[in-house]
Amino acid sequence: MTEEKYYINKVDVDRKSIYCHHDLMGELLIPTHKHDKAQMLYTEGGIVYVITQTNTYFLPARHFMWIPNGVEHSIHTNSENVIMRNLYFPVKKNEHLFYESEGIYPINDLLLQMMLFTNRWDGNINKGTRNYDITKAIKAILPKICVNNLPLSLPFSKDIRLKKIINYLDSNLKEPLYFSEISTQFGFSERSLYRLFQKDLGMSFIQYLTIRRVLKAIELLLEKNLSVSEVALAVGYNSVPTFSNTFYKILRQRPSDYIKGEKILKKS
């Protein structure tokens, strides 16, 4: 599929409309692009990554991502059959601060039902119509109900030395990974490596490793080939309760509850 065929070229044609698009992704990659409108992206049916210039975001099932206007991003998935549900909103003056930042949020029952109501819509939704009022209401309630911006993203490393360490961590998540041993293995003192993580990534070694393990665990849970205990072992946790508690701190739900979730929005 050539870029000219992408629906994304139609998003900003009418700058005053809300643009709606629900469809199969149809491929594994939507290349880097940006919109004058802000985007609300909900997906189902596979594993989705949204990559910006500074972060890689993981968008799990039953969550949506808010992407402010002007943010360059690409969308990557493991299946062409992922269903994308997009609403694109024109930017207004003096809007709530919520709309200015990228974020991933759980989608509650109210928001699901409102998204379901838009299931058959496609293209521009113009002011003065009932559909416009409904989609405008979806945007309006987001700052009120989306209070937990989940840390489901990891920044890109710019330092070549740290990139090597990160690649090693990503390839060995199921193994015990101790900061002191990693420091020695890659020729750092613990103090200097701690500073490098903070300077280059804005987080500690433990913070990075914890988020990376949880992101990998979500992938494995969505594939539904492993039990919770097997997933825990696959991402480096010998204790299932410890894994469950860590997962809960980040996603606000237990792994066992997460895998029970059903796809509520269906492609009609």
Please describe what this structure looks like:
A six-stranded antiparallel sheet has the order 9-6-3-8-1-10, covered by helices on one side. The chain starts with 17 loop residues before the first strand and ends in a 10-residue tail after the last helix. With 268 residues, the protein is of the alpha+beta class. A hairpin with a 2-residue loop joins strand 4 and strand 5 (55-59). It has helices spanning 109-117, 130-145, 160-171, 179-185, 190-201, 205-223, 228-234, 240-251, 255-258, and strands at 18-24, 29-33, 38-44, 48-52, 55-59, 63-67, 73-77, 83-89, 103-106, 123-125, 153-155. Helix content is 37%, strand content 21%.
Topology overview:
Blueprint: E1 18-24, E2 29-33, E3 38-44, E4 48-52, E5 55-59, E6 63-67, E7 73-77, E8 83-89, E9 103-106, H1 109-117, E10 123-125, H2 130-145, E11 153-155, H3 160-171, H4 179-185, H5 190-201, H6 205-223, H7 228-234, H8 240-251, H9 255-258
Antiparallel strand pairs: 1-8, 1-10, 2-7, 3-6, 3-8, 4-5, 4-7, 5-11, 6-9
